[in-house]
Amino acid sequence: MATTNTRSKLKARLKQQDIVVAPGVFDMISVRLADAMQFDCLYMTGFGTVASYLGIPDAGLATYTDMVNRVSAFCGASTTPIICDGDTGYGGLLNVANTVRGYEKAGAAGIQLEDQEFPKKCGHTPGRRVIPVDDMVRKIKVAIETREDPDFQVIARTDARTSLGLDEALRRAEAYLKAGADVLFVESPESVEELEKIGKSFDVPLLVNVVEGGRTPQLAPAELQKLGFSLAIYPASGFLSVAKALEQVYGELKALKGTVASEREMYSFAKMCELMGFAQVWEFDRTHAE
């Protein structure tokens, strides 16, 4: 769970030249695995969290209550700071204040807020529409006023590039920066040239969303760093890999009535027991055995 100390460390880390790479976490196993690997930061992906928790599309169907529940569970199981997807703030200005307050109390190191109309849609998917820039500016100002810890990161995302073009997206990002956002996130640039233009436009921490099969070119973190980005999130890598592995092993189970052929490729049962904390359970049982 993020504390004042861990949040301040993340804030300082994002201002360093070396880019921060944050894997997407979407369920408790992914949180525990990523936390054990000592990343500088994790990212709670909306797409993956909604899919794993509710089995529905990330299209504005999950509620604040659904998501803050996951924020609390993920952050409570992690010593690594987690930036959490807060969608549109789940409503108007009062909702934004409640969301920021709830996410911060639940242990998040930061919140991502976006300028989409409600119901929102997942980034890199079609049909995203944005609210007037002044409305989003007010949301960011409310978020900044509401947070209790000044190191709690408010990440302002604009989805304007896909429907209104890059220049409008950059204009919005500038307005959100002036409103107090700590990190800027221009979603779905569609070329290296656009990434370069974003990087040259701002001298503050910039987030880039790396989605395998998405709209944005796939560049190595070192290349993204040279273009001016401070944080690269990989929201889909984990759940896409898990889905592929499940498809393979379930297919084998159905076809061959067993998993002997793929057992060596699986995460070991012993390591899974260790990851989930069974060693402490067994030690407790030994201590309190009758």
Automatic annotation (TrEMBL):
Q: Which CDD domains match?
A: ICL_PEPM
Q: Which organism is it from?
A: Caballeronia glathei
Write down what this protein is called: Carboxyvinyl-carboxyphosphonate phosphorylmutase
Per its UniProt record, what InterPro entries does this chain match? ICL/PEPM, Pyrv/PenolPyrv_kinase-like_dom, Pyrv_kinase-like_dom_sf
One Pfam match: PEP_mutase
On the tree of life, the source organism's domain of life is Bacteria
GO: which molecular function terms? Answer: oxo-acid-lyase activity
